[in-house]
Structures are given as structure tokens and as C-alpha cells.
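Quick check before the chapter quiz. The format below is the same one you will see on the exam, so make sure you can read both the input and the output lines.
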Amino acid sequence: MHLETAQITAIGGRKTNQDALASAHEDGLSCFVVSDGTGGHQGGEVAAQLVTEGIIEKFRLEASFSARALRSYVDWAILKVAQNKRGNVKQANMSATMATVLIDQSNHSALWAHLGDTRIYMFRNGKIRTISKDHSQTQRLVDAGYVEYAQIRQQPQRSVLFAAIGAEGETSPEVTMEATQLQDGDAFLVCTDGFWEWVYEHEMEQSLALTHSSEAWLDEMSMIARHNIGASESSRDNFSAFTICVHGALAPR
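Here is the expected output.
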């Protein structure tokens, strides 16, 4: 099995880019991380970098495939952010969202974890199979039945989070406990809100069906995002994404 990947990170309409992404490959395992920093311009950039660097650092030191291992990578990033905040007044309020996917290429399986509103989408047979659930106030309204999920992008407080690394509170990072067996043609999109906010789920599926590579899929979605934001009066946030396409995995039974 092999993975075909593409990535993008851009400043959007902001003065600085507080997003970060990173990936690494060790002993047949691959780890992908995307993060979006908050807490002021300097703090947000630092937090996102600490999260991505921390997860990848721990992965490279102790590359293993299990939910426990993945949680240890995330916990290492939490520790690095907490240590950096201590005694640092300028960065006391910094935090960052996190989404990470761990893939075992030898055994054709995947695990993932997230906190905040940076999302993980998994696609099978060209359709979205799973979407990570945001740790946001708007998601709580959706869960309570006050807001339709289809309207989540239009909510004025959509970006208000109740959990992120550096501001976890009572909410722990969500880690999949059981690995998903991958099939040939499966795909992942891991992205910050500045990306998924401007590409609707049906557009993700349509662009995946129309393209034949991770790079082309990412390019097509980026074009859709530019078109959608051009029709609005909003300015775009930083945006970052990985597209990951799985080739040569087990065929479905």
C-alpha cells in the first residue's frame, strides 16, 4: 500500500499565518498533523508550531501504531504548549486546534485524533464516511437540535471553541480507539476551518470524483474555495490542508 499526498498552507486575508502542518514517515507508519493557533498573533503562531512539532517529534522517537501511542504523541504536544506558556505573559492565552492521522501502511489501517475545529474527513467509494466533530459552541447547538448541521458555516459564533490544546478544560482530545481498515481508493482530508468553511461537503465529494490525484483534488477544492469566497463579503482566514489518497490497500470484501 502507498499513500499519495498533497498539502497547502496559506495566509488568506490575515496579516500572519497561524496555521501549521507537518508529516513524517517511520518504519512503514505515516503521521500527518494540522493545527490552527489562537490567542493573539504571536501566541497563535507559536502554539500551532509547538503542536505540530511536538506530535511529529514524539512520533519519530517512538513510532508505533496504537490508540495509546497516538494519544502519547498528542499528550507530548500538550506538555510542550503548557511548558511554553509558563511565565510567558505574551503567550499566556495561546492555544491551538489539532487534527492528526496515523496510518500503518503495512497493515492497511488508520487511527486519528483531534481537538477543536480542525477537521478530519474520511472518504470511501467517493463519499464521506466520517467527519470529526468540532469542539465548538455551534456544534453544541447542532447537537442540541437548535441549529441544522448544514447551517453550521453561517453561524456568527461558529469559531468560538470550548476546547483546544492549551485550553483543554474538561474536554480531552478525541482519539479513535479502534483502527479503521483501509481499502484501495480511500481518502482523507485534514484541514483547518479556513479551508472547510469555504468548501461544502458535497463539493469535496464532487471534486474527488472528478480528479485522479491528491494534488489535483486539493487544487480543485482550492479553486472552489476561491470561487465561494469571491461570492461573499467575508475575508478569508488562514487555511491549511492535507489530502491523502490510499492506493493498493485491501479490496473490500
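If your answer matched, good. Residues 2-247 form a domain with the Phosphatase 2c; domain 1 fold (CATH 3.60.40.10).
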